Amino acid sequence: MNRNVLIGIVIIIVVAIGGFFATRSSQSDNQTSVKKAAHFESSTPAHGDTLAAVPVNVVVDVNFDLVSGSEISILHNDKEYGQGETVIDPNKLAMRRALDPNAPDGLYIVTYKGCWPDQSCHDGRFSFTIDRTKISQYTDMTKQPAVTIQMSDIKFKPMDIRISKGTKVTWVNDDSVEHFVNTDSHPAHTYHLAHNSRALAKGASYETTFDQPGIYPYHCSAHASTMIGRIVVE
Amino acid sequence: MKLPYIFLFLAILILIIVSVIYGQVSQDNELSTQTSPNSIATSPNTGSSQSTATENTPSPSSPTPQSSVSPATFSFGSAKKSAHYVSNVPTHGATLTNVPADIKISFNFDLAKPSAITIIKDAVDYGVGETTISADKLVLSRAIRSDAPNGLYTVNYTACWPDTSCHTGNFQFAINK
After folding, report:
1. What is this structure's pTM?
2. A226 — contact with chain B (CB < 8 Å)?
3. Which of A36, A150, B14, B167 has its CB surrounded by the most CB atoms within 10 Å?
């Protein structure tokens, strides 16, 4: 075999391998890209979120009446981690599906299908990540039957906490401006419906008890872009 | 150019094409496997496999004006609902034999300014005065001109929240005196 043929074979192999991996890289980008279905408004978790614990459910909010046939799939490494059926809320503006509480760390691809009264359907996709190492940044308030979070200086103090299952959490407004305690997303407030207050004036309080392990992201609806908090129930 | 070089050039070209095609097929297979558990159609490169449905679904964001439609044969579009929407009076799709006194839209969360309602027919707003928010902050309302004529009306509303973010919705009703 002469020298030119050998060089040719080497070039061919290098180019072939390079082309293959370039295409594979493009595939990876597609998997983590977001696609919004018609009537999509928001989701919890939001696209790109990194969570310190497993979300209790994935919720998709829309602005049109959902009907049966709508569904959510939650995949990690090609395995389905959604549990039970996809449920449409009574007002038909959100659908939700529970997650396996033992879902491992990593990237999750959520694909959903929203179906409408004329039986047409549209699909969408987003992704989020579970990374339990982030829990080290949370204030440990576990093994207490009740804890209090102050709303002060337009912040939740402490902002991110860990509590034990069954703990009662009370929020108290120390500021002169009104605050709210509302589950994500904003303004749908659908992730955990039992975690929603109306306006809280100075000195007013709101409380709720968390019985299901998982992460609960929330915010103040008067300061939604900055006043946020997270509770991890263990 | 010598024959071996031509052969070499063609071989490289063919292998590049084959490798790209193989990678693409591999990608399609992988995504097909991902979506199969719940049969949710997903095709990242081509958009939705159910994209034809887009053409079949009425867009709630802009109900089509129906000024040329006979008063007896109103054709209502789809209503778009904002977050926290609960109900509205008149209801979407209602045909009234009298002009209603006002439009009321109920929500389950605290409304804030500049929430607003317009009541449009033939590009004219038949709303009277300002949009008001009820004392409990859960109802938007706006009066209608008493001389509002027969026809199809599109109510567009903007619901605003305590952080001044706003969301829009709409619905339609008709008057046929």
Report:
1. 0.74
2. no
3. B167
